[in-house]
Amino acid sequence: MAAEGAARRRLSAEVWIVLGLSVGQSAVYALVQIYARLTAETPLGAQSTALNPSRSPRPYLDLTYQLLNIGFSLVPVLLVLFLLSEPGRRATARIGLDRTRPVRDLGAGLALAALIGLPGLALYAAGRALGITVEIQAAALDSTWWAVPVLILAALRNGLLEEVIAVGYLIERLEQLGWRPAAVVAASALLRGAYHLYQGIGPFFGNVAMGVVFALYYLRRRRTMPLVVAHTLIDVVAFVGYTLLPEAWLEALRLT
């Protein structure tokens, strides 16, 4: 029993460390940011946030910073894959991040993207109208030849980081700790909502709903690849679409 208790404590500590290095850290910052936003003199609906800001006025230095940021932010993904690996079983196979079902994963990813993306856009517009969602500038990069490729890489980074850690890793570890399915789903979904709080109250609830759907899918299918595909597609449409759509369209969609 003592050995079992020590193993559980070690596993719990591992989860807190991983979250502290990744999406858990983002959730803490987002909680502070939403407090700052709600207590500011400017109403929440009149505030804005940029998701992919430029990091330098010099284009090639900006590109360097963008690539470094994307690369280093994926290190926690490598860490959890290392931690989840077992003798004779790769972590990618354990959480379904392999290429054994490319067609089915792509189809499921497309379906999930449509299920989440379209209502998400409507929820964002509703949140802006109600004043509970900040204006989101999905891409604030300068018009350079590398802007679109970098935005696609940023979308892929988001998909890998969030789905591998907040879904695959977290669910696997919480189950090992004896959590019930409902509690596992709630933890994964609330974490996803928490680290999006900097965008306002509306995105919090929208991402919690997305987290519930994705967690339930993982519990049933044990595959993160469709979730990564769906998340990447949603972000590519948001990031690249924001860059390419005319200003009048963005205003009509309440995206600017």
TrEMBL record:
InterPro entries (UniProt xref): Rce1/LyrA-like_dom
One Pfam short name: Rce1-like
Protein name: CPBP family intramembrane glutamic endopeptidase
Lineage: Bacteria, Bacillati, Actinomycetota, Actinomycetes, Micrococcales
Keyword Ubl conjugation: no
Segments traversing the membrane: 15-36, 63-85, 106-126, 201-219, 226-245
Domain CAAX prenyl protease 2/Lysostaphin resistance protein A-like: 145-237
Enzyme class, spelled out: hydrolase
Key word Transferase present: no
Organism superkingdom: Bacteria
Originating species: Georgenia faecalis
Keywords linked to the UniProt accession: Hydrolase, Membrane, Transmembrane, Transmembrane helix
GO MF terms, alphabetically ordered: hydrolase activity
Annotated EC: 3.4.-.-
